[in-house]
Inverse folding.
């Protein structure tokens, strides 16, 4: 066994909780003072770094962890549920108000097309309200004293 | 002479009577809780509470702090499960234990950072343990213990994570490599470097001892 192999095995052993340095490893350690020194330091380092087992107090505290965490979970969920419900109500109320105000406005004001620039009349009505060219001519002819029919007979008739 | 798990490895199979239904896995418990079964919540917490607590204790001055962090750790893991469940579907694997370990390590680091100093809990514990005998050897050992535990927290981040997951959490190299997202051989190398550094600290204390 080389020193590198010995070191690798030692470190694996150190992490196993109950290191065993027998067999081939033990033989190498007895023969190699450098590895023996490293083994002592490594095993002691891991032992010193390892925290002590859980105390009775800590175990008692842990036994209440599940119920405490469940309570905290419920507490976290409650405000979120409340906020979600409040948001739902707010949206519903807003939509209701919008629909109601639209309906009220429509009931209060008579139907009008002012906004469309039609002055409450249909385009057809507007066209028919204008005097026709014949009517215009008749009125002009009446003013100047012409006989409308005679003019027509003279100039236009075949 | 193997590199098996430490003797106090969590998740050791419990004795099961004939005819008893097999215990539900973390996946199933998590899904059952999220669908409203409160008993599943308690079972999950009880199953992993010691692992989470042992990991967090390294970073905390008081056990009460570690307990608070453990609670936050479970709550965050459940939130993660709730968020991930729709994507995983009914059958997808849910690595709940891995999430817990990852969250616990991050919470511990953040807690220690927020405290603006590495905790001295191991030191105070060591001194307290040494008090009754008050023998010089015991005191000296307590001081060495405090020094080594500070050295653990001063290790490079990856080495520290691997070391604490192995020693405090009792995770196998395969398991901790999966949690950290690294190769198993890489995890082993980090652990070896960590132990070598700590061994140097021990040697130095021996040389400086009167």
């Amino acid at each position: 066994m080389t020193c590198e192999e010995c070191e690798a095995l030692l470190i694996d052993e150190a992490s196993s909780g109950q290191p065993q340095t027998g067999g081939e490893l033990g033989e190498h350690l007895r023969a190699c003072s450098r590895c023996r020194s490293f083994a002592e330091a490594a095993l002691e380092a891991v032992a010193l770094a390892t925290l002590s087992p859980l105390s009775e107090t800590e175990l008692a505290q842990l036994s209440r962890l599940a119920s405490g965490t469940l309570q905290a979970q419920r507490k976290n969920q409650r405000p979120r549920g409340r906020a979600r419900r409040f948001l739902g109500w707010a949206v519903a109320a807003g939509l209701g108000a919008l629909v109601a105000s639209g309906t009220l406005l429509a009931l209060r004001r008579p139907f009008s097309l002012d906004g469309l620039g039609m002055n409450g009349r249909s385009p057809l009505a507007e066209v028919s309200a204008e005097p026709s060219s014949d009517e215009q001519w008749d009125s002009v002819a009446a003013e100047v004293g012409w006989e409308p029919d005679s003019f027509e007979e003279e100039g236009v008739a075949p | 002479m193997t590199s098996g798990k430490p003797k106090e490895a969590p998740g050791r199979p419990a004795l099961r009577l004939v005819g008893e239904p097999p215990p539900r896995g973390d996946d199933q418990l998590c899904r059952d809780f999220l669908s409203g079964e409160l008993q599943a919540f308690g079972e999950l917490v009880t199953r992993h509470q010691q692992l989470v607590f042992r990991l967090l204790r390294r970073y905390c001055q008081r056990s009460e702090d570690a307990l608070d962090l453990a609670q936050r750790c479970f709550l965050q893991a459940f939130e993660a499960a709730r968020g991930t469940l729709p994507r995983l579907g009914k059958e997808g694997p849910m690595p709940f234990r891995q999430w817990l370990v990852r969250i616990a390590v991050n919470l511990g680091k953040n807690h220690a950072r927020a405290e603006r100093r590495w905790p001295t809990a191991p030191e105070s514990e060591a001194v307290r343990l040494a008090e009754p005998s008050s023998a010089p050897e015991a005191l000296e050992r307590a001081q060495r213990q405090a020094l080594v535990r500070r050295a653990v927290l001063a290790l490079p981040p990856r080495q520290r994570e691997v070391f604490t997951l192995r020693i405090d959490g009792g995770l196998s190299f395969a398991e901790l490599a999966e949690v950290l997202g690294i190769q198993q051989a890489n995890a082993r190398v980090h652990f070896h470097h960590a132990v070598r550094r700590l061994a140097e600290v021990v040697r130095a204390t021996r040389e400086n001892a009167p």
